[in-house]
Amino acid sequence: MAASKDAAANKPGPAQAADKPATTSPAGKGDAKSKGIAVLEGLLGKESAPVIPLPGRNKIEPAKKAGKKSWLKGLRWRHAIIGASFLGLVAVPATLASLYMAFIAADQYHSTTSFAVRSIEGGVSTDILGMFTQASGGSTVSDSYILMDYILSERMAAAADRKFKLEDVYATRGLDYFYGIGSGLPIEDKLAYWRDMVSVNFDHASGIMQVNVKAFDPRQAREIAQFIVDQSDNLVNSLSLSARNDVLRAAQDEVLAGEARLSKARAGLRDYRDKSQEISPEEGAKLAVQLIGGLEAELTKLNADLAAAKSQMSEDTPRIRVLKTRIESLEQQLAVERQRLGTGEKAATDDPNAPDVAGRIAEFEELETEREFAERAYTAALSSLEKARIEANNRQRYLALFIEPTLSEMAQYPSRLLNALLVTLGLLFAWGIGVMSYYNIRDRA
């Protein structure tokens, strides 16, 4: 018993065991390992782990708690900024836009009209729908685009301003300063507002053009739409007339040139006939040849009679003298007629500059050839002019109006719910992009 008591008295207590190094015995190593696991579990935040008093532990815990409080404080500050930005950039503007659309925005009425630029060339359609939907090729497509540009051009806006006074038609209604037009604006600003109030849609397949005009009064919207139709019709007619004149101008110039040439040829032929006093020298030559032939036949007969008389009578008989006289006269006449075929006028008029029959025929043939060629050219020019006129008529354009400007009974614009929704979505989208950009930059930093 005494020995056991001494062993118990010599057994180290808990404090002494803690002061001894861990490497003194295997049992000490196991105790140190369990203490390390307990400290690690305490650092990981496990509540079930035992808290082991270690040197310096009381100094580390306050710093850890202070860091956690600062993180929560920073998180609350960022959330407050994000919430405030949502209210200022999304909620409040969207609410104001919705209130504006619901109670302040003025009603707008629209007038719609539809027409198409058509050409009369090609086959004629047998149904009414074909009159408006048959495509005449690419010839009218360019005219349709020209008309679209004209409706939305500064010239159209200026013409509408002179007729309707746009500042009065689209003046501010009540507190709606957003959709109303200002006063004293330059033509560029009026054109921008005109393009907001007038829209043009063109269907390339059918060639149909639809014009939509908005205004604060339905009657004014219809009047402006009718004005656009009238101006468009005038433009199409002027383009058609200009194209027709361009096609006919060249043909008309050819006709005028051919007519002048033919008149000159006819005047030259008339002067020649006045000078020569004959319709045609060829006909005169034919008559002269016939006359020479008759004279030669008569001269041959007289020579035969003279030979027969000489065989029966003496030279001094009256019959032989008469025959000789007649033969001499015929020979002189025959010589004169033969000279007229070559230089007849020289012998007859003693004019060295007077042409003979051959010269007159050559001059007449030249004049006659010029006249015939001028007539043929003039006839061809007239035929070309007629063809050009037919072609110009086939190329003629016209405005086919098949929907008159309408008169609205109910306001269609502005789209209050849609506009408010679009404003809200746009603001929300922009705000979301800003928030995501901030967090992206913060994470990368």
From TrEMBL:
Q: Where is this region: Disordered?
A: 1-33
Kindly state which keywords UniProt assigns to this record, in alphabetical order: Coiled coil, Membrane, Transmembrane, Transmembrane helix
A GO MF term: protein tyrosine kinase activity
> Where is composition skewed (Low complexity) in this entry?
7-18
- According to the record, the signal peptide region is none
Tell me which species this is from.
Sinorhizobium glycinis
Coiled-coil residues: 292-340
List all membrane-crossing ranges.
80-103, 417-439
Q: Which InterPro entries does this chain map to?
A: Bact_polysacc_biosynth/exp
Cellular component GO terms held in the UniProt record:
plasma membrane
Q: By what name is this protein known?
A: RkpR, polysaccharide export protein
